Amino acid sequence: MAGIGGVGGAGGALQVELLEGARAEVVDLDTGQVRGMARCALPRGVREGDVVVDGRLDAERTARLAEEVRALRARLAVPVAGGLDLAAPSRLGLNSRRER
User: Are 17 and 27 in contact (CB under 8 A)?
Assistant: First the structure.
């Protein structure tokens, strides 16, 4: 597990951004830099969004980061105008005029 730059070694934390086949894309939470690495270098059972520190899954930091994202999304949410039903299927698509 300590291969490929120590996977979150030296106290650095990585967030797993994407798992695809044998590769993973991770974000260094200290620098914000994105890099690719072999998926096998990550702890077994890791999922997208998880935080890895010193080669181990850090459930507490993962939960804290998820809560921060939830709070940010709630602050950025745009209220829906009264009477507007976003769940109702639209009769016209966004490109309906161009498609005619």
Answer: yes
pLDDT tens sequence across 36-90? 999 999 999 999 999 999 999 999 999 999 999 999 999 999 888 888 777 777 6
Contact 23, 37 (CB under 8 A): yes
Cα 52 from Cα 24, distance rounded (Å): 13
Q: Set out the domains of the chain in order of their start, with CATH numbers.
A: 13-68 (2.40.50)
Q: Yes or no: say if 78 and 86 are a contact pair by the CB < 8 Å rule.
A: no
57 contacts 64 by C-beta, under 8 angstroms: no
Helices (H), 1-100: 59-76, 96-99
